[in-house]
Write a structure and sequence with these properties.
elongated, 20 strands, two-stranded antiparallel ribbon, about 10% helix, 14-stranded antiparallel β-barrel
């Protein structure tokens, strides 16, 4: 048991004061503050992130709208009826590389990080069967719909708070291992409340501060295996349907180091050799978090395209509501090193499963083609994100489920994403394109829209084989949670960083026609 002598000595290190009144927030998973920020660790935000990653608009590489025309397998995700527009069967294989550059502003400083990842982008085939009237096409494909690769770091001297302020929150997952490693301790001699080890002995106004250095990594992809069929149901009227299996995996890693660079905490209060006498103090605290999420679920789409004259097509599709099954594995380690190089380390791990009920998506679009090989396409996708729901299992999580679903409904907006594209096919068969994507803000209170621009082309090698290269450049700004905490006055708060994110996707593949 930790020594009362050490607690009393730590209190004497600062100016004596009465212990503050403990404030306990009824909900600490969703911290109540005036500021809304992204926090990929929260299940409520994961639910919306995994939902929006199921769109053909977010896939790396090609962002051309396929609601009323056909370019590739991504077009079939936009509208399964577009499969009937392929006049020739083909096999498609492509790889993607994603490079993400992030600039993080935190505590007056700026850090820049890059991350490069490669993955399978698409794989599949289309069989085109001519019929007495029209066509009957079917096939199967895999399409990568999203990349979760992110990386940023923060560095600075924090005079206001410490990540150990998170550990002292009543009910905090970290409380046990933080207490075992001296990251937190009793804040008074009577042992009535817990306090950050860097605050014990100081009033909130006297907190001397701590050097912080952290790196946050996110890795993973999402994709869909899809089976589809489409036909020209009547002259100029194309209908299609698809059923798919959505799957994804994402890893979130946070390495957070707090250092006593100026040796402010230089007492001899911590006993590292079990002789009953204190001989050292804290030099640094390291927190390592890793959250691994895997999810899967069925999806289904219906679509229709109507040809109006020789130049105009209009189309619409409907993605039915669906359910994702999510399994998360979490591992956390706290290591506290003392001035005498001795250290204390403790860890926790576990698994958690839950379900995400995804809302439907309604898409509409048009395409206008000319005899000169030019085609313009436009598409819009409407998703009521506020209808996303989380389903936890067990009566013990009923209250958390209700709170998180109320959070989703109140914070997230119903969104309308827009895409436009222009293609030109030369008489020799070479195709070039340009496209633009506008992704509406997900939060009601924040204007964090995302813009993307795509460029690329398809070059024939011979009559039945072509090579295509597609690229997409996207950018957005975001306020992201570094950690939530309870300040020196026991009030809930959030430490955030402002991020400027620039992502370049490159897709390279081959298409073999048969």
């Amino acid at each position: 048991m930790k020594s009362l002598r050490r607690v009393f000595a730590l209190l004497l290190l600062g100016v004596a004061s009465q212990a503050p009144t403990v404030f306990t927030s009824p909900v600490l998973a969703q911290v109540s503050t005036d500021q809304v920020s992204t926090n990929p660790v929260l299940y409520s935000q994961q639910a919306v992130e995994f939902t929006t990653s199921a769109s053909g608009a977010t896939r790396p590489g090609l962002t051309l709208p396929g609601t009323a025309t056909a370019y590739d397998f991504g077009s079939i995700l936009d509208n399964p009826a577009s499969a009937a527009l392929f006049r020739q069967g083909f096999f498609d294989l492509s790889l993607a590389a994603t490079n993400t550059n992030e600039e993080a502003r935190y505590l007056g400083g700026t850090q820049t990080d890059n991350q490069l990842k490669g993955s399978l982008s698409s794989l599949g085939f289309v069989v085109a069967l001519p019929t007495r009237a029209g066509v009957l096409n079917f096939g199967g494909s895999y399409v990568q719909t999203a990349s979760f690769n992110r990386a940023y770091s923060v560095v600075g001297f924090n005079q206001d708070h410490t990540i150990t302020d998170q550990f002292k929150i009543p009910g905090s997952t970290y409380e046990g291992i933080a207490f075992e490693t001296y990251a937190i301790d009793y804040g008074d001699v009577e042992q009535t409340y817990l306090e950050s080890i860097f605050r014990v002995g100081f009033t909130p106004e006297q907190y001397p501060g701590i050097q912080q250095e952290a790196e946050i990594l996110q890795e993973g992809i999402a994709g869909e295996w899809n089976a589809f069929i489409a036909t020209e149901f009547q002259r100029n009227l194309f209908v299609g349907a698809s059923i798919g299996v959505t799957n994804g995996e994402k890893t979130y890693k946070r390495t957070f180091l707090e250092l006593d660079l100026n040796n402010v905490y230089n007492g001899d209060f911590i006993d590292t050799n079990n002789d009953g006498e204190g001989e050292t103090d804290v030099d640094n605290m390291l927190l390592d978090d890793e959250f691994q999420s895997e999810y899967s679920g069925l999806s289904a789409r219906l679509g229709i395209i109507y040809q109006v004259g020789e130049m105009l097509r209009i189309g619409a599709s409907y993605k039915l509501p669906s359910t994702l099954n999510v399994t998360e594995r979490y591992d956390s380690v706290i290591r506290t090193t003392m001035d005498n190089a001795e250290f204390f380390q403790s860890s926790l791990s576990g698994d958690f499963e839950y379900k995400i009920k995804q809302p439907s998506t309604l898409s509409a679009g048009l395409s206008i083609g000319t005899a000169q090989g030019v085609e313009f396409a436009f598409g819009a996708d409407y998703t009521p994100l506020s209808n996303t729901e989380i389903n936890y299992s067990g009566l013990e999580t009923f209250l958390d489920e209700r709170i998180d679903n109320e959070y989703i409904e109140s914070v997230y907006d119903d969104v309308l994403d827009l895409r436009a594209g222009l293609t030109y096919t030369a008489p020799v068969g070479v195709t070039v394109f340009g496209s633009a994507l506008y992704q509406a803000p997900r939060f009601k209170e924040l204007s964090q829209e995302r813009l993307a621009f795509g460029f690329g082309g398809d070059v024939p090698v011979n009559r039945n084989l072509s090579v295509f290269i597609n690229s997409r450049l996207s950018s957005f700004n975001e306020t992201s949670t570094v950690y939530s905490y309870e300040d020196g006055f026991f009030q809930p708060a959030v430490a955030t960083t402002d991020l400027d994110v620039l992502t370049l996707d490159l897709q390279v593949g081959i298409k073999a026609r048969f």
